[in-house]
């Protein structure tokens, strides 16, 4: 299980001062097999990590550096990129060329088609020139509970973000089995504000978003197409769905409430719970709750778990799936480490927190 | 407009120490035409109001009394009842007999059929004996923007609560016009914790519900039947819908995200916005937002307003309605005063707060 | 009471899009005697107010303009300046020259000595050239409960901010009477995050400051010198004190806990409560609570009130004063209107909210 | 270091369903050397732990039992008691008689004098009969950084709560060295609401305490005498101090801001920082921050750490100490395990979380 060559465990974290980066450093610090080898950043380059992050000191007091591929490749076997959309595509090809395997937390390699990416991420596309079609087509979309074999051998894993993770995990077993009307899917999602990142924006101020809930990007959220792409690929037929995100007054946590029509309205909640359990029984990262018990995001905070519950309205054959995750762990950095574990030959949940504190 | 006989303005508040009661006292204190004449309560009976509510002192320092119908009728023309479900039914008939007109904030008179109430509120039905079928059938369900004429002359108004108010206001115009598939309605609702009342319960502790979101009463929430009853009556045909409430980490505010299929998929967002504007243009209590602008609950906090927005997904003809209210004002006590205004012959928004502070 | 010439009631608000400005517009909108005549701003100039502030629409849909003194003077009798420190000093002399009376919410005119201002606000002093010594020396520091006569005739009122207001109101009566050891004063203050303004900063993000408390600017907060200046002037002898602010996870509200030694340790809590009542009995803006009852900031939220309580430890003769305000109303914009009321010849609390909603 | 006899590691948790108990179970679940052997509770007795705590499942699905000393002694070497004040004294003597070593999280054994306890905890004293003077006099007050040798051999450790822990840790080195005026100490403390426990009370509802700060038990908080007792014992002379707790709108975290006069006003912040470092340099549970860097409670959330900073006002020789802990870990259950580690012969920080997640 454990590779004898420890050298395979040197990990660069790029974008280290953002929320994604901080989680990555935190998780790697406690991980039994990986070591941080490089901390990269733009805004904070030149600073000592321990000075600007007194709550998360590292034994070696790194200086944060501008992310130079050559420098990274000298000291790292893996790179975890937690960068703004578009920026990652400027770095990833250079890293792959130098045999650094990459887990990318941005949206840059989540589409198999660069053309589609350019359409959805049009403003980034104008800012960053890209012609890495081939890399796009070979990148692996990393949901570790669904395609671990591809991930194990991947050079580049595109790590899904919080909304797709929370929404797809409960939905995919039903799509795979062909159990739901594919034009009936509605995802009503609710996220804490840390999902908006650490870069200061007015709408993320406590004064603005405390004591408030509002939807945003109705119809237009870019994760819609990402969720549709994966749902389509698992269902084997084209899927269009409704996705409405809401911003909640809390730091962490994401809840997806997913509605769909069962093709066979005779299926019960217990039947549907069995479907979920059958798919996920071997994964410590997924909890299927008893029918009638619904997850709170607090139950999975600071863990790499999804907690899922299912209910069926027998009056109308409508399926209701509830899924809770920590948006920065299972919805981002924990999942990145989960992918990294597989790439390095470990169990996928090695070193990841699976137990919350409460309350 | 203003009745010459000021006597018609004496108002008893029963259940004064709960959140509903406190709002009622607050709103009446600033109202130009009504005077508090009696403060009733069980748990706090015998206490001076000003001693136990130092943040909301009244000029006359009332002693809170057990609600005796005879006493109330001696000093009051109207009674606002903010009592637990079931308890109101023990008091209301006695008040009506003594010519006190009643606005009831509980669920006791929200169904035209007592039999239906007994089914839905079965535990209350076991605890409180009721045979006031006639009163049930004559009570008016008070949505002041929809049936002001009935309310004006009503002896008893059943005041809708927060979830039905926020959900029905955007939905009713489309049901009235026959514009949506009646079996396609999904209401995903999100509420602050003050909706759970002031009686201490573990799940409403800050330690439990801060930094957390969870659904509750999935499929089983009792407001489902109430919403269906009114929707059915306006649509003129039976409606079954999905209603999923969620508990949010905030004090006040309620957002309903409502999904439905348009019967004519050619309707645009602008068309649907016009539908809403046509229905509500004369009501200061309803704001229809421009297409593409979505309400935050913070925009209507501490006001008697609903802020509503509509969007249509032209890919699939799905209508998305967003509606934000303050659950304790427009979703409860403010709406009660709105009804009271009509019963007493005033403009329905007289003396009600229509402008939030921000942030 | 009411001036016959309504022209004296035209008010310009400069810095309208910040939290201070929004409160000013909100309060003026509901005020019976003042009208908004001009909305000024830098960042938002050129926008329609109603477009960017859909939660606070004005009947006349103003376009926000760069603040030109000539333009302001054409349409305004008063100007309320809610600008960053330093910027106000570039505008105020020009307005005064044009006979526009000014209430300034910044720190620019809070010191009688420009030299002291330049020392304390050294970075602003480098950025903005000032030689308006005379204006500084003639400006009135506006605590309306303490110097209403000066305020009434002032051309320029420097409106104190949240920390000085909450800390001085309970302390001044004891300083005035010479009841406390002047070297024993410790102010431990706690503020919501809206005090940090609307301009996005990392440390004010919900993700950063929710579920957290921390002190800041220990020893170094610039309000220390401002509090000392006023305390010294009322006490009639030099006062140095300790002031430690803390940032709390809430939007609004400020609590000051003030400790000092009584010169006569025989004074009781009741004696000290009488001292406070004697000073403030005629002011609706100040509530002195019964001994043993302590204010929550929630009791004064969205009001122009301070709620104050006093306690004495008879073991050691130490006085403890607790004072709660809404930092954006009584601690900022409400107090500005209170000053404006006096300048225009009205009762100081005219049109100001004095009653919170709860919870 | 590690006892060969694993039997010495069986731990009963009594009061398991409260916040203290939940933390204990959580920490023991991840501890390398201890095993939960018994879960005791009153209110939840008869329930399966895993049913009522779905977010913290144990591999052996315990049934919660009424705490019978005989049953506990059969399966346990240690008992951790997280019970209401008074109740612990009814169980502890029986457990000690049966050779079960006890860590008590209540106040029952925090005073060496039972008479003093009866005075301070007078209502509990009326409810629970006690004559265990001897046990009181022999119990060890467990601050593991200060008296580890006594703790190692103790039969009964009284574990200090959150306010004394956060306040004493920064203060004791200065008292021990005789560096401060002993009549000058003021502790202004701020706590999250989980410190009030899981038993539902109105003032702990989110609707009440969100968006609010207020002091409570001014002069009268029972921890005053407890802090004074320990401070007196370390200083070697009687100490009376001021202690004012405040309730904050957050789940977890406690910040103490401590003010005192230095006897030698020539001491600098750096000198005082050296004093702290000298005392705590060998303890991973204490972080002394660089001068000018102040802790946020968020930096130590979910950890068994105290983060401490010191500052001196050279104008007046006043010392300001800032101390942040997680009230339920270092302020309660983590500290209990820290004591348990010592009693069982391990390093005191074994198995305890020392690294927060952020944000």
What do you see in this structure?
The structure is a homotetramer of 359-residue chains. The first copy, chain A, is built from 13 helices and 13 strands. Chain A has 359 residues and is an alpha/beta fold. Chain A has two domains: 6-138, Rossmann fold (3-Layer(aba) Sandwich); 162-327, Dihydrodipicolinate Reductase, domain 2 (2-Layer Sandwich). The A-C interface holds A 19, 192-194, 196, 198-202, 204-211, 249-252 and C 19, 192-194, 196, 198-202, 204-211, 249-252.
Describe this protein with a few key phrases.
disordered N terminus; 13 strands; Dihydrodipicolinate Reductase, domain 2; 13 helices; seven-stranded mixed sheet; 359 residues; homotetramer; six-stranded parallel sheet; 2 domains; Rossmann fold; alpha/beta
What's the structural blueprint in terms of helices and strands?
Four copies of one chain form a homotetramer.
Chain A: E1 10-14, H1 19-29, E2 35-40, H2 49-52, H3 69-75, E3 78-81, H4 88-97, E4 101-104, H5 114-120, H6 122-127, H7 133-138, E5 140-141, H8 148-153, E6 156-158, H9 162-176, E7 186-191, H10 206-209, E8 214-215, H11 223-235, E9 242-247, E10 254-261, H12 269-280, E11 286-288, E12 306-313, E13 318-325, H13 329-343
Parallel strand pairs in A: 1-2, 1-3, 3-4, 4-6, 5-6, 7-9, 11-12
Antiparallel strand pairs in A: 7-10, 8-9, 10-13, 12-13
Helix pairs in contact in A: 1-13, 3-4, 9-11
């Amino acid at each position: 299980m454990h590779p004898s060559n420890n050298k395979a465990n040197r990990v660069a974290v790029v974008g280290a001062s953002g929320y994604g980066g901080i989680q990555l450093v935190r998780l790697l610090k406690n991980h039994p097999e990986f070591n941080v080898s490089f901390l990269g950043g733009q805004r904070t380059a030149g600073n000592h990590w321990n000075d600007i992050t007194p709550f998360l000191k590292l034994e070696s007091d790194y200086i944060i550096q501008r992310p130079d591929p050559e420098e990274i490749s000298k000291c790292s076997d893996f790179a975890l990129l937690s960068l703004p959309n578009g920026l990652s595509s400027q770095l990833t090809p250079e890293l792959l060329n130098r045999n650094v395997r990459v887990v990318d937390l941005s949206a840059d390699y989540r589409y198999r088609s660069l053309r589609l990416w350019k359409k959805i991420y049009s403003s980034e596309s104008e800012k960053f020139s890209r012609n890495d079609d081939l890399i796009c087509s070979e990148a692996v979309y990393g949901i570790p509970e669904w395609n671990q074999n591809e991930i194990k051998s991947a050079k580049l894993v595109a790590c899904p973000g919080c909304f797709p993770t929370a929404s797809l995990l409960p939905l995919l077993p039903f799509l795979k089995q062909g159990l739901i009307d594919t034009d009936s899917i509605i995802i009503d999602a609710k996220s804490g504000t840390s999902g908006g990142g650490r870069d200061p924006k007015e709408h993320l101020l406590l004064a603005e978003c405390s004591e408030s809930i509002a939807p945003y990007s109705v119809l237009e959220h870019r994760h819609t197409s990402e969720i549709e792409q994966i749902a389509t690929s698992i269902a084997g037929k084209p899927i269009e769905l409704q996705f409405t995100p809401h911003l909640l007054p809390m730091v962490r946590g994401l809840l997806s409430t997913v509605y769909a029509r069962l093709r066979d309205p005779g299926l019960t909640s217990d039947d549907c719970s069995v479907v979920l359990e059958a798919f996920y029984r071997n994964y410590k990262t997924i909890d299927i709750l008893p029918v009638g018990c619904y997850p709170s995001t607090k139950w999975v905070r600071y863990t790499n778990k999804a907690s899922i519950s299912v209910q069926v309205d027998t009056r109308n054959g409508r399926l209701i799936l509830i899924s809770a995750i920590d948006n920065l762990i299972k919805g981002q950095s924990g999942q990145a480490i989960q992918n990294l574990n597989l790439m390095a030959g470990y169990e996928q949940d090695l070193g990841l927190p699976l137990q919350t504190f409460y309350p």
